[in-house]
Every structure is written in C-alpha cells, then in structure tokens.
Amino acid sequence: MSLRIPYPQLQQELMRVLLSLSFSEERAEHCATIFAQNSRDGVYTHGLNRFPTFVQVVQQGLIHPAAEPECMEQNGALERWDGNLAPGMYSASVCMDRAIALAKEHGIGCVALRNTNHWMRGGTYGWQAAEAGCIGICFTNTIANVTPWGGTDARLGNNPLVIAVPRAEKPPIVLDMAISQFSYGKLNTYATRQEPLPVPGGYDQDGKLTTNAADILASERALPIGFWKGSGLSLVLDVLLTALSGGRSTAAITRSGTEAGVSQCFIALHQPNMHASLIEEIISYTKSGAPSETGEQVYYPGEQSYATRQDNLKHGIPVEEDIWQQVQQM
Q1: What stretches in the chain show pLDDT beneath 50?
Q2: 1-66+299-330 CATH fold
Q3: Three-state DSSP string of the chain
Q4: What confidence score (pLDDT) does residue 188 get?
Q5: How far is CA 172 from CA 39, 143, 198, 275, 300, in A?
Q6: pLDDT digits (tens, 9 = 90+) for 205-224
Q7: Active site (catalytic) residues
Q8: Spatial distance between the Cα atoms of 131 and 165, rounded to a whole number of angstroms
Q9: For 9-35, how does the pLDDT look when each residue is reduced to its tens digit (9 = 90+)?
Q10: CB of 40 within 8 A of CB of 313?
Q11: Are 226 and 232 in contact (CB under 8 A)?
Q12: CA angle, 82 as apex, 176 and 64 as ends, to 5°?
C-alpha cells in the first residue's frame, strides 16, 4: 500500500459511487462514511478493499438501497426488528442507536435484528455505543465457514463478537473479534501477500491444519478460536441470534447460497458511574508486564486501531492502487 489518500477524498469518492446506485444522499453519505472510517482505522479488508464486493451485491439485488429497518415487536427494553435487506451498516447503526436510547431510559437496551446484511466492521457499532457513553455488545451470524470441533465440514459461522467499554476522556476499549482464529478479511490479506499465517488458521482441502491462508479460503474451513471452546461459542451465539430475532441461522443462510439476510443483536448498557479509576487500574496492570519481544508493548483492545486512525488522518489512508483505480472507474 504505497499510495495514500486523504480521508475526505476517499469518503467522497465512495459516496459518488453509491449515489450512482440509487442511494439517497443521506444513505450514501452514511454508508460511504463507514467504509472510509474502516480504512481510516486500519481495517482495510472491510473498508475500501471490500467496497467493490458491496457494489456487486447491490447490483445483484441482494441489498436494497432504499429499504428501511423497522421495529416488529417490543417487550420492555427488548425489541425485535426486521432489516428488510437494507444496507447492513445502515441497519446496524440504526439498531445500535435504538439500543442506546433504550439503555438511557431503562439502563439496558437490546435490539435483535433479522433479515439484514453484512455490517462490515463490527467494531463500528462498539465505538458508536462507547462514544454515546454506553457499554456496547453486539454479534452477528454468517454463512458456514468454520469447522465445529470434532467435525470435518464447515457447519458454524465465524460469528463476530464486539464488546466496547467507554473511558472518561480517553479512547474506549473495543474488542472486535471473529470466532475463527483469523477473520476471513485477515485470511484474504495473508493470501494476497502470499505470506504464511503465524499459527495454523484452518484446514486445507485434505483436512490438514495449515498456515496457508489461500488453502483455508479454498476449503472454507477456518479453525475456531480456543478449539472446542470457540466451537461452542460460535454455536451459542447463533442460537441466541435465532432465538431473539426469529431470523435466519447459519444453517439457513448457508442453504441460501449467499451471505444475505443474516441475524444480528445489539445490546447497550448505561449507568452514570462506570468506575473509571477501576478500569484504568486494569489497563495499567495489564500493560505493566514485560513485553515478549524487545521494542514491543502490550496493547488493550482498540488501542492500535485508535493509533492507526491518528496516523492515517495525518498522512492519508493507505490504499491498494488497483482497488482505488477500480472504484474511480465505477
């Protein structure tokens, strides 16, 4: 990534393309901003690099640019929504906003969302909650791309999970992780660079553990985090999503043949006193240990993303030149 593009230029170019796809100006600006922010924060696989795929899915009719998510059922601080196949990042933002509003009224808010689309970077909605002064928890299911422990075929999703905690006048703690050892975005990065993974990340087509990202992408058999523990966590998240939203499970999504119409959940927790000094004590203690390698340091979740954000805003966002040219020609 030798070419750097100023953040406003990237955001405006993405917005231009979305306007050509029948997005309203407000919707185009919202979605373009999220894509640009993902690249700004160093999550290039779900920013500019993912944008051409998003455009293709819109053109295939799997994403409805003008659709609006709607509340279908209310039960106190718990609501069930239907995304109506609107752009996933838009619906996710709307539902996290609603969870935040419920939390500020009741202390907790939960919005279960069915019939939605890929939300791109899940951490976006953790940052959204934390910046509103709330703890945020959200998770989604996916097409089957993880092998359950003891199995030989992909039957689980990598079902990303996000947990975010606000901090007083400091960047929040934001855990954003797939339940696979490596997210599929990260696997694509390693495959493109033809670099081996630092540890085995899945199985090849012969059923052998491998550090070759391209072989894992071909087999679609990623390894769950923590072996059997990650396998169980992936399954339980899928069960929770289906139970709360009444939407499609990983099995139903996979049978459809495309990763559309997924299910998601957005939870916000709010209380006036977040015990900031106790949180800082945890971070300080964790970072006080000696690093494993000279010159390195221990980071809390979200710390490196924030540092990358500051650097990319100052120097421009690194982009893959071929992808940038492809978007400019759209």
Answers
A1: none
A2: Hypothetical Oxidoreductase Yiak; Chain: A, domain 1 (1.10.1530)
A3: CCEEECHHHHHHHHHHHHHCCCCCHHHHHHHHHHHHHHHHCCCHHHCHHHHHHHHHHHHCCCCCCCCCCEEEEEECCEEEEECCCCCHHHHHHHHHHHHHHHHHHHCEEEEEEEEECCCCCCHHHHHHHHHCCCEEEEEECCCCCECCCCCCCCCECCCCEEEEEEECCEEEEEEEECCECCCHHHHHHHHHHCCCCCCCCEECCCCCEECCHHHHHHHCCECECCCHHHHHHHHHHHHHHHHHHCCCCHHHHHHHCCCCCEEEEEEEECCCCCCHHHHHHHHHHHHCCCCCCCCCCCCCCCHHHHHHHHHHHHHCEEECHHHHHHHHCC
A4: 86
A5: 19, 30, 28, 14, 10
A6: 998 999 999 999 999 899 99
A7: 46
A8: 9
A9: 999 999 999 999 999 999 999 999 999
A10: yes
A11: no
A12: 85
In one-letter notation, the amino acid at residue 277 is: S
What is the identity of the amino acid at 243? Answer: A
Which amino acid appears at position 30 of this protein? Answer: H
| CATH tag for 71-180+224-269 (out of 3.30.1370.60, 3.30.450.40, 3.40.605.10, 1.10.10.60) | 3.30.1370.60
Confirm if 147 and 222 have CB atoms less than 8 A apart. yes
Q: Which two tokens stand for residue 112?
A: 């279960």
* Stated length of the chain: 330
Look up tokens 């106790």; give the residue: 278
How far, in whole angstroms, is CA 17 from its chain's centroid? Answer: 22
> How much is the pTM?
0.94
